[in-house]
Write a structure and sequence with these properties.
- The chain is of the alpha/beta class.
- The chain contains twelve helices and ten strands.
- It has two domains: 134 residues, HUPs (Rossmann fold, 3-Layer(aba) Sandwich), CATH 3.40.50.620; 141 residues, 3-Layer(aba) Sandwich (Rossmann fold), CATH 3.40.50.
- Strand 2, helix 2 and strand 3 form a beta-alpha-beta unit.
- Helix 11 runs parallel beside helix 12.
- The radius of gyration is 23 Å and the shape is elongated.
Length: 294
């Protein structure tokens, strides 16, 4: 019986201290196990850009915390019978540091997540990453986190905000970013007219600046709770189409979480019709939350 050749002898995973980056460990462990390869967990810390600076990024974790987490990851990998060790590198030029590490350690395969605290590829290899990747001496395996960015469409109504608790729950569990998306329409738009007809004149008349301030206030509250959150506002006369277009154009969108409908009448129809169109036209998962009846 012919024994398959072992293509990889040493697999490298790049980490930045985030759970999103750690999603690559599972894939790398599986490959290392099948090829009887050694797995190296490499934590990167980017120093200040000024020469001689020893200051790290503001979001950098304390060294003791990083070492503790690397030790936990090592134990998880060893359960699968894989040889594993960890390394830490601090550098102003992460791309150069990674290249030198790959050559010095004779790495066979580089595995990394597309998302960490920020976009991992750009963070490690810089803005000209396409040119850098062309010169990478080993194969690169990029994996996407299960949940990177979660979009919560909000129209200014309390009913739409009832999707927030579920979105927050998912974001906390997967260390995902929350995007509070508002589709603004002028007061002369047909959708605004329908809100007024449904008895919600305050939503129809709400100025853009006021809505933006409300969203920023909500974003700040979420950040104080330790969540990654930002606001995005688009102008469109078609809310469902705008939601779908944003989800398709924004890199890393993993899920839409939105309210299904109001309690009765036209308000129920308005939110419900938007939700139905989003589900029908989007390729990414959509979680629909039914508002409380109280």
């Amino acid at each position: 019986m012919t024994v398959p050749a072992r293509i990889y002898s040493r697999v490298l995973v790049i980490l930045d201290g985030s759970e999103a980056a750690e999603c690559a460990v599972r894939y790398a462990t599986d490959i290392a196990s099948k090829h009887e390869a050694e797995l190296i967990l490499l934590h990167l810390n980017k120093l200040g850009v000024q020469r001689g600076s020893t200051h790290s990024d503001p979001d950098t974790l304390p060294r003791v915390q990083v070492q503790k987490r690397l030790a936990e990851l090592r134990e998880q990998v060893r359960i699968d019978g894989v040889r594993v060790r960890d390394e830490m590198i601090e550098s102003r030029d992460l791309s150069e540091a990674v290249h030198k590490f790959i050559e010095a350690e004779t790495i066979s395969l580089l595995v990394m997540s597309t998302q960490g605290k920020t976009g991992m590829v750009r963070w490690v290899f810089g803005t000209q990453f396409e040119q850098v990747l062309d010169k990478l001496p080993v194969p690169l395996m990029l994996v996407r986190p299960l949940y990177g960015k979660i979009v919560v469409p909000l129209d200014g109504s309390k009913r739409s905000e009832r999707a927030l608790p579920r979105a927050i729950e998912i974001a906390r569990l997967h260390n995902a970013e929350l995007i509070l998306l508002h589709v603004y329409q002028s007061s002369t738009g047909s959708y605004s007219d329908q809100w007024a007809l449904a008895g919600h004149q305050q939503i129809a008349d709400q100025p853009l600046d006021q809505m933006r301030e409300q969203l920023i206030s909500l974003r700040n509250r979420l950040r104080q709770e330790g969540l990654q959150a930002r606001v995005h506002v688009v102008q469109s006369n078609n809310p469902a189409q705008a939601i779908c277009e944003f989800a398709e154009s924004e890199e890393g969108i993993s899920m839409i979480v939105m309210s299904t409908h109001g309690r009765t009448g036209i308000a129920r129809w308005l939110l419900g019709s938007v939700a139905q169109q989003v589900v029908k036209n989007l390729r990414c998962p959509v979680t629909l939350v039914q508002p409380d009846v109280n």
